[in-house]
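To: structure subgroup
Subject: Chain for Friday's discussion

All,

I'm putting the inputs and outputs inline so they're searchable in the archive.
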Amino acid sequence: MIARLLELRSDQVRLFHVRLAFSEDIEQVGKFSIGKVWTLFTTIIRIWWARIRHRTSVLYYPPSGPNKVPVLRDIILLNATRWLFPKTVFHFHAGGVSAFGGQLPSWLHGPFRWAYGKPDLAIRTAPQNPDDGAEFGAQWNVVVPNGIEDMRGTVNERTAAPGELLTILFTGVLVQGKGVSDVLEAFRLARSEGVQARLQLMGKWHDDAYRKECESFVAQHGLVDEVEFLGVLSGNEKFERFATCDIFCFPSYYAAETFGLVLLEAMQFAKPVISTQWRGIPSVVADGVSGFLVPVQRPAEVAKHIVDLALDPALRERMGREGRRIFEQKFTLKAFRSAMEREFIRLFEHD
């Protein structure tokens, strides 16, 4: 989303980017390394230089989720840079960091408050997300939904013909909190109810031990021929998987989840969605309209809705069509950029 924001072209807002390149891949996220210390130091220097060179008056920063190493990084970086800027904007793409301060040693409570406290503008992606901005005493607190570029028409679409296997797709980091174990169990239950389908999981494993656990589950229940781990796909290869699935399943309860962009990626191709009543997901998926939402960690309920959709092609088509309508109405990239530009401009109107 930050990359898409940087493409904003505006007569009233100019953006200068200092890249926060702390992790090269998902396996490094949230973990300490000596290389990250050097990156932190050089990033602070580059922020100082950008402030001096471009005379930027606003520091825009995406705070970390509730994870110790990234929070410590934020404390150092923000305390070293915020004082240079007249205004600070926090954009909470991850949620829940405001509650993490109590888990830190008492001597860090002050630096935690100084780092995150009283931003001029706080942005979160959905009203259901933790209100980190309010907890930190933001002067102005708004909701700006994410939006993505419409890729429909760039790849071929298809749905299963009568008698063909349905394709159920999961996309995301392959970690327990994203609902990987739940989608595997739900698929097993749906298969036991006679659903003729295959399950594809697209994304990178968070760690090798969890990969082995999931692969063992698949083998133990005789699902090797029906479950496929696709790995990381990008570009047209990724969008082809969305465009050719029949049901998108994303039963996440991830600690830092705030929105679920993958839901939009499915909805743009008019696919029905099964997801969870977690954080900002209900702001994206209309329960009973564009898909089904279940309580977290309820694979039996996920399975029930897989069966419902598998047995009713008209329901799949209707929910997919509604998802596409909602996407066009609320979650386009144009709508996201326009909202962000408006909030940046309003930031100076609050002086």
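Points worth raising on Friday:
The chain has twelve helices and ten strands.
The chain has two domains: 6-146+333-349, 166-330.

D.
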